[in-house]
Amino acid sequence: MTTTTAKTGTTAPAPHGGGGAWALVRAELRRRASLKVSLAVVALFALMTVAAPLISALGGWGPEEFDKTAVDPYLGGLPIGPLGGVSADHWLGVEPVTGRDLFARVVHGAQVSLLIAFAATAIVVVAGTAAGVAAGYFGGRVDTVLSRLMDLTMSFPSLIFMIAMMSVARNVDRILLMTLVIGLFGWPGVARVVRGQTLSLKHREYVDAARVGGAGPWRILARDILPGVSGPVIAYTTLMVPGMIATEAALSYLGVGVRPPTPSWGQMIAESVAYYDTDPMYFLVPSLCLFLTVLAFTLLGDALRDVLDPRGSRT
Predict the structure, then answer these.
(1) Which of 16, 129, 179, 270 is the most exposed place for a label (fewest CB within 10 A)?
(2) Per residue in 105-119, is it b (16+ CB within 10 Å) or e — as a string?
């Protein structure tokens, strides 16, 4: 949002507060039906992340409980009944051989997959914003060191390095390790965006006025720079979440992520590949959850970027 100064007639950023931008977000939400659906899907899976034990308890089964009566031992352990064993007892069917409830597994898988994605995104945003603001505002050697560190981090073949680190790690918390490893390689992208925004903001009139008025650098960063970069950061944060979800799913699919019996969507998809022709529901349920989550966050992120960072949406 911009305002026109009384004396010069020039256009300047609106005062920090962001009320105008968030009013535009609400208007966009009312205008786009697809955005409402995306927000509902995001809220649903976020609720799964927070309340997975309570939600799975509604189905009456835990994620690691076996129900041998739901599978046929004479047919290689395939679920009994249509659609992979869908019934009043098992709302989404059961896993072949084990008979574990798919509803409980999917809900707890959402908790693991989204927890890793959200935590890794938080690390990326905090580290990237701090590095970008420091590089853009202070410049000089600080900018040089941080920019070279960004280049160095981005030059690594991240997926191969993640696989190598996850493969050699033993007797560690896999969820914590995956969060840190994924977050390690994501911050330079955010830092570059924030650095560019900071460079364009630090010579604005209201920043110069604060500097002339005796405000120190940390006060200027907190009151003038950070509110100015918050819009693009929020928009790109929403767009990063789908990539984080997909990365966790890929690592678990390759067998170097979360280990059984802890469920995750990528792990469930990997295990279901062997049954896609005999029990397609086992493959479709976690795949559809992953697809809907990534699509919802992508649509939501695109809408926020159009409103909060219109220049970025045109590039």
Answers:
(1) 16
(2) bbbbbbbbbbbbbbb
